[in-house]
Design goal:
The complex is a heterodimer of chains A (325) and B (531). Chain A has 325 residues and is mostly helical. Chain A contains 14 helices and no strands. Chain B is α+β, with helices and mostly antiparallel strands and 531 residues long. Classes of the chains: A mainly alpha (325), B alpha+beta (531).
Chain lengths: 325, 531
């Protein structure tokens, strides 16, 4: 119930904002040169001659039957578009988050344990850098170094042209599809393409995750149970990595989940630099073109992701925190 | 410091995991990096975007075409011969024999009739190019007909300059579609539109469609049974959407693409000394202009209009901002069009502009706004204008906006000054003459909303003269009228035409043969070859 009200509210706000922006959606559909009669016909086809509330009513009715309409930008059904662009974002965001967690959490722990020592400072500067440098710049510099100079990463795009269309899309996530088809060359090529943009994006979540881990850990390390554990003679490693970090996991999961959700919305700039056809640039292009069907469709996806990930992190709570069981 | 090194090393290893990035494109495949996000349809009866024109022209052919090196020369593509009847309204085309479509079906005059009829009946964005000859969904089946398998007859409503009609047929919308294949894939009476728009090609051109992934790429493969000498030299052409020019440059330098289509001036300069990369250029039909809304009483003063034409540093802009992308051009017909003139009456002359402003009653200048879309090079030009305008006391306030936003305002005639780009709809001079020099009804709810109308420029005499050119069957006389109208336009119009686009393409030195003409529909792939 709450979920459906949230959705309706989300739809309503997006719908009405889309209608008040000073962009003519008919123009977006027919182009600047279309003669008056074509313009008028399309205006009626789009239902724009009806009162606003009626347009909204019709839209919601259609959405309930699974019809999101056609996107002007691609002239394909919005649902098809999302099925195509979302896996690209999912692939990138997942790899990025994995990198962020695998590197960010230990970095945060290290920083907390060595509070105010040089390791802490270095990690803090790195985290600060990750948070303040524009991703656009970092992406281009990354391409320049790892692709153009060192030649260890592949360039923009999801695959080299030679590997295009070898694997039939099943999930749309090339890494998975390639494994399913047993095409190791395609898999390796896809990995070489995803690693650089994922590392750049991962660096941003890493910076955030490391900072949060550090502050959570500092708080735990001051607790009495840590002193008790040390007095009991447990090794320092066990105290830190098992006892303290174990207690940090609960709030940390929320942080990670939110970072992941943010990445799943798509990152326009990274997608642009790396020619990654994902949800972020799709949504942005649609917004700028007043392509309301596409905007609303993508908004619903983003909304679903947020709700889904919230649910997931609730479930993970129970897993990490025995008290919640 | 060890931690940092370890982390960086870990990152590098992670990146390198799958490495083995191929440094060169496959031998039988040409790869282009281009901005193709404007592509929304691959149906010749519907497409009206630059990218669409280009890809469709490689898959479909028209009845007649023009020589891209000399636009005044028309030749038969799918039509072998043609003639105009004595009434000046009946055109007969003899269709070539033995030409095959991508499906293997043989081309007949019925296919040509079907293609033109469907474009008229669907009446999508480019439909007006045909409907302006008095064709509509009710009469099109009588007026466009195949009298036998090899004869097509088209009747226009009134007598027009034959060149006007022929050039309109050379447009993408004149592309001939395989009628059997289109009908077999028809959905809900759409003439196969949904199918041709994104799934397949049904033409006679040297390439056929493999697939199109919107905002990602399109891929073409050689049509082995292509009939003409324009048989494709390379098996496959893949065009990838790479939005960021800096990424395009890196891909080209590494050899991961053979062509980069949207490099900027700085990038081209940086590549100038790279032996592996060459550059080719061609003038395109688009022009950059700014226009003055005549609803604004200040801008309506003839002296002000003229003064503002002297407040642009045309040469400096070309040299410092636009090099390799635009050249100075001051008339509404771009070079490469019938009737184009090379006149350059204006250059930066602040003293003269001040003088004119004083005569117009603004010795100390005035303040004015300009709607400016947020894209390069428009914003750069706007900023330079701001500086040169200020020298004569004109305070220019730039209102930035998204393209569709500024356009919505422009079309509603709510702007003061609008700066924008105009590309011709087809290769006949009438396309630009109509929009820049005709305004049949200056009221707010006029039917025809040309650029002259958008700027509320009321010109009954010029409208009549421009219209007469379309009916002039003597090509020499027709050219003379356009020349005269353009010279008058220089002096009196509220349009300050500044530049004409040149398309600059950078490519690997071992690849060549990309043909470029004055329009995007003249960008042809069939001769591209790799060594």
């Amino acid at each position: 119930m709450t979920v459906s009200i949230t959705f309706l509210g989300l739809l309503m706000v997006t719908f009405f904002i889309g209608r008040v922006v000073p962009i003519d959606p008919v123009l977006a559909a027919v182009g600047d040169r279309a003669p008056a009669e074509v313009y008028e016909r399309v205006r009626i086809e789009l239902g724009l001659h009806l009162p606003l509330w009626q347009q909204f009513y019709i839209y919601v009715q259609k959405v309930l039957t699974g019809d999101f309409g056609r996107a002007v930008l691609t002239s394909k059904p919005v649902l098809d578009d999302i099925v195509r662009v979302f896996p690209a974002t999912l692939e990138l965001a997942t790899v990025a988050t994995v990198l962020g967690v695998v590197i960010g959490v230990p970095m945060g722990v290290l920083a907390a344990v060595n509070q105010n020592r040089w390791i802490d400072h270095v990690i803090r500067v790195m985290a600060l850098f990750g948070h303040s440098v524009p991703v656009f710049w970092l992406g281009l510099v990354g391409l320049l170094i790892f692709y153009a100079w060192l030649g260890i990463a592949a360039g923009p795009g999801r695959l080299d042209v030679g590997f295009d269309d070898i694997v039939e899309p099943v999930t749309g996530v090339i890494l998975i599809d390639a494994l399913l088809a047993g095409e190791w060359d395609v898999f390796a090529n896809a990995v070489s393409h995803v690693m650089l943009p994922a590392s750049i994006l991962g660096y941003f979540s890493l910076a955030y995750i490391a900072r949060m881990t550090r502050s959570f850990m500092l708080e735990q390390l001051r607790q009495e149970y840590v002193t008790t554990a040390r007095v009991k003679g447990l090794t320092e490693g066990r105290v830190i990595w098992r006892h303290a970090l174990g207690n940090v996991m609960v709030p940390l999961v929320t942080v990670i989940a939110l970072t992941y959700a943010n990445l799943l919305e798509g990152s326009v700039l990274t997608e642009t630099v790396f020619a990654w056809p994902g949800l972020g640039s799709y949504l942005t292009d649609a917004l700028l073109a007043a392509d309301m069907n596409a905007v609303l469709g993508a908004t619903i996806v983003v909304g679903t992701i947020f709700i889904g990930i919230n649910l997931l992190s609730d479930l993970l709570y129970r897993f990490f925190d025995p008290r919640a069981k | 410091m060890r931690t940092l090194t370890t982390i960086l090393a870990a990152g590098a290893v992670a990146i390198g995991l799958g490495a083995g990035a191929n440094a060169a494109t496959p031998k039988d495949t040409v790869v282009m990096a281009a901005q193709i996000d404007d592509l929304i349809s691959l149906d010749p009866g519907e497409s009206f975007e630059f990218s669409g024109s280009e890809v469709i022209s490689n898959m479909y052919q028209r009845l007649i075409a023009y020589d891209i090196k000399d636009v005044t020369r028309l030749y038969g593509q799918l039509a072998e011969t043609w003639y105009v009847g004595g009434d000046g309204k009946t055109y007969t085309f003899k269709i070539r024999r033995g030409i095959k479509f991508h499906s293997g079906n043989v081309l007949t005059a019925h296919d040509a009739a079907y293609s033109l009829q469907r474009a008229v009946i669907m009446n999508k964005s480019p439909g007006f190019i045909l409907t302006q000859f008095g064709l509509n969904k009710d009469n099109v089946k009588q007026r466009i007909r195949a009298t036998d398998d090899h004869t097509l007859v088209v009747e226009t409503a009134g007598q027009v300059a034959p060149t006007f009609f022929f050039y309109c047929l050379t447009a993408v919308v004149g592309g001939v579609v395989d009628s059997k294949a289109a009908m077999a894939n028809e959905r809900a009476g759409d003439f196969g539109n949904a199918w041709l728009k994104s799934e397949a090609s049904a033409g006679t051109g040297p390439y056929k469609l493999v697939n199109w992934k919107p905002k990602e790429s399109y891929s073409l493969i050689r049509f082995d049974d292509h009939w003409s000498g324009d048989k494709a030299a390379t098996q496959r052409v893949v065009v990838r959407h790479i939005a960021e020019p800096a990424s395009q440059r890196l891909l080209l330098e590494k050899g991961d693409v053979d062509y980069a289509r949207n490099l900027t001036k700085d990038q081209l300069e940086a590549l100038a000394n790279n032996k592996d990369i060459k550059v080719q250029q061609e003038r395109k039909g688009s022009i950059l202009y700014y226009s003055l809304n005549q609803k604004n009483p200040t801008l309506a003063k003839p002296e002000v209009r003229e003064a503002l034409k002297y407040l642009i540093d045309y040469d400096a802009l070309e040299k410092n901002v636009l090099k390799g992308t635009y050249v100075v051009h001051q008339s509404f017909l771009p070079q490469g069009f019938l009737g184009a003139i090379p006149d350059r009456p204006y250059k930066l002359d602040v003293a003269k502009a001040k003088d004119l402003l004083a005569k117009g009653g603004f010795p100390n200048g005035f303040s004015i706004t300009m709607d400016t879309r947020n894209t390069s090079p428009i914003t750069d030009i706007a900023q330079t204008m701001q500086a040169t305008f200020a020298q004569a006391g004109v305070k220019l306030e730039i209102i930035p906006g998204d393209g569709r936003q500024t356009l919505t305002k422009y079309r509603a005639r709510n702007h003061d000054i609008y700066i924008g780009r105009w590309g011709p709809d087809y290769q006949d001079p009438h396309t630009n003459a109509e929009t820049f020099a005709m305004n049949e009804d200056n009221t707010d709810d006029a039917k025809s909303k040309t650029l002259a109308w958008r700027n509320a420029w009321n010109i009954p005499e010029m409208t009549a003269k421009t219209k007469s050119a379309v009916r002039e069957s003597d090509t020499k006389k027709r050219v003379a009228i356009y020349e005269e109208v353009q010279r008058e336009h220089h002096k009196t119009s509220p349009f300050v035409i500044m530049f004409q686009q040149i398309e600059t393409v950078a490519h690997r030195a071992n690849v060549g043969g990309f043909l470029m003409g004055p329009s995007f529909e003249d960008n042809l792939y069939h001769a591209i070859k790799k060594n």
